[in-house]
Amino acid sequence: MEIKKFSDFCEQVLPDFNQFLNDRLNSEIKQETLKQAMLYSLNAGGKRVRPMLFLAVAYSSGVKLKDLPKYFDIAGAIELVHTYSLIHDDLPEMDDSDYRRGKLSNHKKFGVGPAVLAGDGLLTQAFYWIAKSSLNTDKRMAAVRILSHNAGPMGMVAGQMTDITMEDKVLSESELTTLHKEKTADLMMAAITMGAFCADHELSKNLVLYAQDVGLAFQLKDDLDDCGDGEDADKNTFPNLIGKEATETKLNELVKEAFNAVLKEDKFDKNLLVSFLDYFKE
Ligand code: GRG
User: Fold this and answer.
1) Could you tell me the distance, in angstroms and rounded to a whole number, from the CA of residue 64 to the centre of ligand 1?
2) ipTM exceeding 0.90?
3) Which of 20, 106, 184, 246 has the smallest C-beta neighbourhood within 10 Å, fewest atoms?
4) Does residue 279 lie within any of the structural domains?
5) Residue 150 is assigned to a structural domain of this protein
């Protein structure tokens, strides 16, 4: 494999991927306000972690760099679903956030109705992109199955429901782990497993373990990063439940377990997935 660092991989692939996202939505969406609201959040500075992980797994499974654009529809679908989830999460009846990534949240910029519809539009368009992808039928069906399973009422939507309905209850460690698994880890899991499926890589238990660990670690890092700002003080988070230090220890354990899991992979180039773990050390 010519690229060994995740950051170098993103540097190579992201400009074309970002162009793809914008070109597709610009050409497909005719309703101007809807298009602006969808593009606003899609271009508001997200890191594109999930689609890059998907593409990195495909690349590590042997897909050539020049062939990666064939996988952009599926990678794009994952980012559309992620973007919809953030728009809806910020709504007044959910997390009620005025800002996201340092910019006005979608409903603050466009109003609640347009923000709900921008989210609806992104979610629906994701599955249109998968259906229209040039990958073979088996791969497209696997992508629909995995993404809907992990992002819908068996995954992220279930986690969000627990989150908003259990707000006033202190969750146990195992309840909180389930909540984070569904709300955050399942979409990361989808990105990684879809990458393997789309590249004909046999899904191994090591890759699944890696995905589970990375998904939970992602949430813990987010909560630790937010620790000092006071906004999360009464939320169900690991730092609030077990303390900051114990959360840091848990995060380090997850990263170590993910590292060991990926090292056991044999039919797979390990460099990019090992290098992605640096994200948790920043
Ligand atoms: C509305 C169905 C529905 C679900 C919302 C994603 C989500 C569920 C809630 C967001 C709560 C949150 C901040 C969770 C922490 C982990 C997380 C998903 C962080 C945001 O992901 P990043 O860091 O975001 O990849 P960027 O901005 O880079 O795209």
Assistant:
1) 30
2) yes
3) 246
4) no
5) yes
